[in-house]
Amino acid sequence: MACTNCSTTAGNAPGCQSKGSCSTGNCGKMPVFNWLSNMSLPSGQEPFNIIEVRFKNGRKEFFLNKHNLSVQMGDTVAVEGSPGHDIGVVSLKGELVRLQMRKKKIKEDSEQVKVLYRHASESDIEKWALARERETPAMYKAREIASNLKLDMKIGDVEFQGDNIKAVFYYTSEGRVDFRELIKLMADEFKVRIEMRQIGARQEAQRMGGIGSCGRELCCSTWLNDFRSVSTSAARYQQLSLNPQKLAGQCGKLKCCLNYELDMYVEALKDFPDTNLKLKTKKGDAFQQKMDIFRRKAWYSYRSDPSKFIELNLDKVQEIIALNKQEKEPESLEMYVQTYIEVAKPDYENVVGQDSITRFDKQASSKRTSNKKRPNRNTGNKKPAQGNPKVKTEGAKPVAKNPNQGQTKSNPQAGNSNNSPNQKQGVAKPKRQPSRQRRLLKPNENKATANNNNENKKPE
After folding, report:
1. Among 54, 224, 321, 375, which residue carries the largest CB count within 10 Å?
2. Residue 53 backbone class (left: φ over 0; alpha: ψ -120 to 50; beta: rest)
3. Domain segments of the chain: what residues?
4. Number of other CB atoms surrounding residue 375 within 10 Å
5. Is the peptide bond before 430 cis (omega within 30 degrees of 0)?
6. How far is the CA of 91 from the CAs of 6, 51, 131, in angstroms?
7. In what order do the strands lie in the sheet with 297-302?
8. pLDDT bracket for residue 392 (50, 70, 90)
9. Ramachandran angles phi, psi of 344, nearest 5°
10. In this structure, is the dihedral angle defined by the CA atoms of residues 36, 39, 41 and 47, taken in order, positive or negative?
11. What is the pLDDT of residues 400-430, one digit of tens each?
12. Rounded Cα–Cα distance for residues 65 and 49 (Å)
């Protein structure tokens, strides 16, 4: 927050020095705008002598200014504790405090209204700062002790009193917890008086704070000081999808902001007909598709053609309903239409198959098929195995184009006398030598092997 009146900048908050005339109230958490600060009281009326003091995480209480001290909003004061004293910041004074007490149903002579002692001194503030530094380590240590005792509870926050003699541990739990042993262990560990307070999930989110889905700080931790019940009917009135992941806040409950505009929606929905009410025409019955509450429009479709949305003003819809109550039917809804939308198929042609979900599968299968049909280019150049009797030779030496290979070229028309007439004539596919073995053979060895094969073969 940045305040121009008290020279407070973002990241540097020395405290409000406007003495009650700041337009934002104060620079603390959950500030209050005192819109009566510049107004003078009627003659003969004394100012209200009860002030509101804010403590850690927005906790506020009321204190009686018994000694008539001159305090302003933003002052650090020492107030009565139980036991001892506590340190807080003045958040509100004047007649607005009277309204806040009336709102929270607290009487002026109630026991909840304690006494304001004095302005905080330097020693009070130093002791208060030391107590605030102990809060985070104490919370982690308390969680460890509770985990060792196997207690079904979650300690969410710790608040030390300003005089550093008392600590309040806030926890959440689904049921009752027997924490008597836990209090004994924590009292021995921290050497202070221990008090346990059970809070709800919303109070826990309020004390811890955070950023909501809207991108701003949580309402409960910045300005919202009371929690009202939120039901799913609030989402139905506002035509929101009943998705618990979107409707729930960080506390796990329904968002408080669902109640902000609920009254406006309820008031606007009074003029709209029931969503299940059908409009009867001679062309056919029409049912409601959707509606726009603030533009006062509704969209209807025929049963025979649900893809066509016919936009009607709310006045026209009520006119058709009035005719139906008189057992009269208009010709069609198009008589009252201004514009209507057709939800149709796209006009483009499916040229490259972009509408098919399995278009990539077809391409992959066609590629595999084409690879199977493609002939092997190395089939004609395969080298016959050594000692193959179906290799035709001329003379004693084999005919080979490459003398280094030392192998003959097969004749596809050379038949075998031993073959049966049903058998196809041709040369059987010779067995390939392993590539490693062929690579190790030398040219001279290849020639010698070929000569041995020719000597063992009978002349044709």
Report:
1. 54
2. beta
3. 1-120, 130-205, 279-342
4. 7
5. no
6. 16, 8, 21
7. 279-280, 285-292, 297-302, 308-313, 340-342
8. very low
9. -120, 175
10. positive
11. 444 454 444 444 444 444 444 444 444 555 5
12. 5
* DSSP states of 287-347: EEEEEETTTTEEEEEESS-TTEEEEEEHHHHHHHHHHHHTT---S-GGGS-S-EEE----S
* CA gap 224, 30 in Å, rounded: 8
- Residue 434 to residues 400, 413, 440, 441: CA-CA distances in angstroms? 20, 27, 10, 11
CA gap 344, 347 in Å, rounded = 9
pLDDT band per the 50, 70, 90 thresholds, residue 50? very high
d(CA 290, CA 401): 84
**CATH among 3.40.50.1100, 3.30.300.20, 2.30.30.240, 2.30.250.10 for 130-205:** 3.30.300.20
Our CA angle for 391, 394, 397, nearest 5°, is: 90
CA gap 455, 448 in Å, rounded: 11
Bridge partner list, 384: none
Determine the Cα–Cα distance for residues 448 and 396; give it in Å rounded to an integer: 11
Structure tokens at 171: 């926890």
Check if the beta carbon of residue 181 is closer than 8 Å to that of residue 149.
Answer: yes
Q: 150 — phi, psi (to 5°)?
A: 60, 50
Which segments of 195-306 does DSSP mark as H helices, in order? 201-208, 219-222, 233-237, 244-247, 262-269
Count of CB atoms situated within 10 Å of the CB of 411: 12
Q: What is the per-residue pLDDT across 338-365, written as a single tens digit (0 to 9) for each?
A: 554 555 555 656 656 555 666 666 555 5
- For the chain, the residue count is 460
DSSP 8-state class, residue 97: H
The sign of the dihedral angle between the CA atoms of 197, 201, 207, 208 is: positive
Q: Please give the single-letter amino acid code of residue 65.
A: N
Give me the residues paired with residue 309 across strands: 341
8 Å CB contact between 407 and 384? yes
Strand bridging mode 85-92 / 50-54: antiparallel
Tell which wins on pLDDT, 355 or 256: 256
